[in-house]
Specification:
557 residues; mainly beta; Immunoglobulin-like; Methylamine Dehydrogenase, Chain H; 2 domains; four-stranded antiparallel beta sheet; 3 helices; 42 strands; elongated
Length: 557
């Protein structure tokens, strides 16, 4: 039986009381507002004896035909209009009520996903965060790569614990970093004598000056340390030493950016969020307080004395500021010089390369000038014609670019001493113009990594490692190319230094926040059972809830 009618008839008292009750009821019917609590599922009509009550008795029923069907991008929820129910037809109601759709996962955390008059809604999954990992990198007299089994291999001079080994010893050949067992590394970054590595278990390890987990920035304990991140933060990338000695940038699995120290945080070891306007997520970190957002825009914060924001000013900001590119430009990668506030970026398609910030007397920005000046907005670099480019890296006043049209063609501009230009020249011959490097025609360069003193690439067909630049650390005699050779002390052109690296893949990886898993279309699907409920009000009454569990296909009729 339906529940008892909600009665608003006046009690048989004085006429004044009846008139007052009637007036109140008419106000309710006219405005849809009532001061008494709504009776879910109750008969919504009042006693027919009340003057001016023209409603016909009926029950406010739950919606019928509720379906929740999974797709690759979300759950499609639909139902039958409440206007087909007896309460609506009996009273000639023709305007759809307002439906509220609520989702729970495993019966918890109810979330309203839609409120409106439509008869369907798509509860779209969140988009996963895509990032191309760095699997080989170089710093100041140190370098390393991630092996296919997740082992981090390092070599070079370790005077400041830069090789992430507990012994703090230098090595002229690749040795495994002292990462705790059971933590395969999936992403890494080097800067100066510091490094950061992220494991598939969601842990972040750092080593080198000032990067120890939650400790004083001057601490030099045995590396590496596990960084303690804010609750719920799962790291997928990190960049050490951005902006200052103690700083660290961390990107989490939801695309949110976190920072410790830097020009905003100082020497604090407490992490804080760095929010990009418009809810943008991050797809690439750099060696400075500059990031590439997932929509192809570039954002910077902190110091802007050299125009490194690329926004036409030299005014700093504690919050991210967008670089000004020509309208419609989408940036696919950004590189920052850790030694100077200089930047290069590749636009979608690879035919346009942009540079901004500090253009030193070596002309490292590739603009055809060796005049020391600040370039306040991104400017097209004077790259070789009739080619597109797959990679561009700037480090220590030298920029190297790789042709995507012919990957055996590499070009450099800027500081050229000690073989940094890679064209066989030892002494500096800076002109501000790109020159072709001396690379054999059968080489296919990939995974470019530029350091302070040396640079590397991997030959795609053989996985052999090639290097050029300063080859030996003068104070320790350590071979900086991991080949145990101390002669010559400079490689003036790319030279094979290691063979058949068993490198981890640098294909883009997709990440989701805790409690969700990325599907093949790059969307984050909740791990639990999703249930949807629909309710609607009419005047002061609210229907009971109709419920449906998300299914792979429509339920049977």
């Amino acid at each position: 039986m339906p529940p008892a009618a909600a009665t608003y008839a006046p009690r048989p008292r004085q006429a004044r009381g009846r008139r007052l009750a009637t007036t109140l009821l008419m106000g309710v019917l006219a405005t849809g507002v009532i001061s008494t609590p709504a009776a879910t599922g109750a008969w919504f009509t009042a006693d027919k004896t009340v003057s001016s009550n023209s409603l016909t008795a009926a029950t406010l029923q739950p919606v019928s035909g509720l379906k929740a069907v999974k797709s690759s991008i979300g759950v499609d929820v639909s139902w039958t209009s409440a206007l087909q129910q007896s309460w609506a037809t009996a009273n000639s109601v023709t305007s759809e009520p307002t439906y509220t759709v609520t989702r729970t996962i495993d019966g918890a955390n109810p979330t309203a996903i839609s409120t409106g008059t439509n008869l369907s809604v798509t509860d779209q999954y969140g988009k996963s965060v895509s990032i191309k990992p760095t699997v080989i990198d170089s710093g100041s007299s140190i370098a390393g790569y991630i092996r296919s089994d997740g082992t981090l291999m390092m070599w070079g001079s370790s005077s400041a614990s830069g090789l992430a080994n507990a012994s703090r010893q230098s090595s002229s050949v690749p040795i495994a970093a002292s990462i705790p067992a059971g933590n395969p590394i999936i992403n890494m970054a080097l800067n100066g004598w510091s490094g950061a590595a992220v494991s598939s278990t969601g842990k972040l390890f750092t080593w080198g000056p000032g990067l120890h987990g939650g400790k004083n920035c001057s601490d030099e304990s045995s590396p590496p340390d596990t960084i303690q991140l804010p609750a719920g933060v799962t790291p997928i990338a990190a960049s050490p030493g951005v902006g200052s000695y103690c700083s660290l940038l961390v990107l989490d699995s939801t695309g949110q950016l976190w920072q410790r120290g830097g020009s905003v945080g100082g020497t604090s070891t407490t992490f804080f969020k760095v929010n990009l306007p418009g809810g943008r997520t991050v797809k690439q970190l750099t060696r400075r307080e500059t990031v590439l957002a997932s929509d192809g825009t570039v954002w910077s914060w902190g110091n802007n004395s050299r125009g490194q924001f690329g926004n036409g000013t030299t005014t700093g900001s504690s919050t991210p500021v967008q670089a000004i590119f020509p309208e419609g430009t989408v940036i696919t990668s950004v590189s920052a010089d850790s030694q100077a506030p200089s930047f290069v970026a590749i636009a979608s398609g690879g035919r346009d390369l942009y540079a901004w910030g500090y253009n030193d007397s070596y002309g490292a920005l590739g603009l055809g000038s060796v005049k020391e000046e600040n370039i306040l907005t991104p400017t097209r670099m004077k790259t070789p014609e009739n080619q597109w480019f797959s990679d561009a890296q700037i480090k220590s006043s030298t920029t190297v670019i790789v042709s995507g049209s012919d990957s055996s063609k590499l070009y450099s501009v800027g500081y050229a001493s000690n073989g940094r230009a890679g064209n066989g020249v030892i002494n500096n011959t800076a002109t501000g113009n790109f020159i072709q490097m001396d690379v054999a025609s059968n080489i296919s360069a990939t995974k470019l990594a530029t350091g302070n003193s040396q640079a590397y690439f991997v030959d795609k067909s053989t996985n052999n490692l090639y290097g050029w630049g300063y080859a030996v650390d003068g104070s320790t005699g350590t071979a900086l190319f991991g080949n145990n050779q101390t002669s010559p002390d400079v490689y003036a052109k790319p030279t094979q230094v290691q063979t058949n690296l068993q490198l981890s893949s640098d294909s883009a990886r997709y990440f989701c926040g805790i409690g969700t898993t990325s599907n093949s279309d790059g969307y984050c699907v909740p791990n639990g059972v999703a249930e949807y409920s629909v309710t609607y009000p009419y005047q002061a009454w609210t229907s009971s809830s109709a419920k449906a569990t998300a299914s792979a296909q429509s339920p049977p009729p």
